[in-house]
Amino acid sequence: MSKEICIIGLGYIGLPTAAMFAKAGWKVTGVDVNLVAVDKLNKGEIHIEEVGLGDLVKDVVNNGNLKAQTSPSKADCFIIAVPTPHNEDNTANLTYVIEATRAILPFLREGNKVIVESTIPPRTINDVVAPLLLEAGWDPGEDIYLAHCPERVLPGRILIELVENTRIVGGVNEISAQKAAEVYRSFVTGEILTTSALSAEMSKLMENTYRDVNIALANELVKISEKLSVDALEVIQLANYHPRVNLHQPGPGVGGHCLAVDPYFIIEKAPKESELIANARKINNSMPKFVTDLVNELLPNNASKIAVLGLTYKGNIDDVRESPAMEVLGILQKEGYKLGIYDPHVQQNQVNFYLSTFKEAVKDAECILVLTDHNEFKQLDEVVILNLMKSPSILDMKNCVKVDSPEIKYINFGNLVELKKEKVLSLT
């Protein structure tokens, strides 16, 4: 099997994928329009945060197996791993996928493999990508091989899961699926399942939709439990003792480029038939407002200062894409609250507002609002909290903080009844 591969898109999936192929002995050319990313990569540096990625990239750049540039070049295999954002109406924006496909056309040769890893709506390979190749004079499945192989990895474990997870490879025909599967067998130890491109597209979307719907169920339980003064977290824990029940954990919403986006790609194609999926999206999208309503109950004076901890959509990563924490922050800003914002994983150049240190954030604050479950937040410096805060209270929307001091009021999704008590006290 030949060993030259060109990967279009060097983001959270493309760069780790490029590094893994390079580690497996491929000569990898990574392509991105981000000049900073390209320059850093060619120096053996990375522009994103992922466990183990920095050392791996340094090694494969130094041994000559990985280089970066701003345009494609000839290869035996092309992998498209560009973003698929959504439009204002939540339909998929396939501009990047289309542009990436067009960009590789001048470099295609007979026998090449073209693999789309980007998450895409059902029928995109057959209705969008394949026609572009046909227009250029190639017959997908005959003289070149076209497939969809969606990523299915967890940030923080990407380098492990790229190797160990089962991969689904969907081709425009059987030989395309088999040719693409051969590419991944160079480093994947997990099972590789071959299928049609359409089934691969749909299975990826349903994996994330399943989780989105399950989280929506947990979030709806939180709202019901608040109304009935029930401990939602205890209810989930007890229900999950059933051998066939696995309720997920509630939170301030759903973020990231997968769970918060992928279900819409299904809704787009079958809106009348996807009522449950659409309602789950509405529930999860309502959670940032639910969280700010809880803040309003705790701090009815919007001149109060809040220490906001966490901006990313999940813990221990630097990714703020579609993060519900960012939406919560926006609502609080509009309502006039003073905010101290702290996230140890986010760089100042990723946001357009000032990032504080932990001490700056909590100084004179009347509440700590936890929106991300970073490891740094699981045991906060309680001496600093007691010494610097006006009112030592924590509103933990990720249910992750361990509090030892009885002087610190702690509220999470399990004891929201405490907010009702606070409201009654404030009115008496």
Q: Give the class from helix and strand content and strand pairing.
A: alpha/beta
State the separation between the terminal residues, measured CA to CA: 77 Å
- The CATH architecture category of the largest domain equals 3-Layer(aba) Sandwich
Within CATH, the superfamily of the largest domain carries the name: NAD(P)-binding Rossmann-like Domain
- How many helical elements? 15
Global Rg: 24 Å
Mean of pLDDT: 95
Largest sheet: 8 strands, mixed
Shape, principal axes of CA atoms: globular
Name the strands of the widest sheet in spatial order: 3-2-1-4-5-6-7-8
- In total, the number of domains comes to 3
What is the CATH class of the largest domain? Answer: Alpha Beta
Helices and strands, in order, run as EHEHHEEHEHEHEHEHHHHEHEHEHEEH
> Which percent band covers the strand fraction?
5-15%
CATH third-level topology of the largest domain: Rossmann fold
Low-confidence stretches: none
Count of individual beta strands: 13
**Helical residue percent band:** 40-55%
What does this protein structure show overall?
The chain is of the alpha/beta class. The chain folds into 3 domains: 4-190, Rossmann fold (3-Layer(aba) Sandwich); 205-282, N-(1-d-carboxylethyl)-l-norvaline Dehydrogenase, domain 2; 284-427, NAD(P)-binding Rossmann-like Domain (Rossmann fold). Helix content is 41%, strand content 14%. The strands form 2 sheets. Strands 3-2-1-4-5-6-7-8 form an 8-stranded mixed β-sheet, sandwiched between helices. Helix 4 packs parallel to helix 5 (124-135) and helix 8 (197-228) runs parallel beside helix 11. The longest helix has 32 residues, at 197-228.
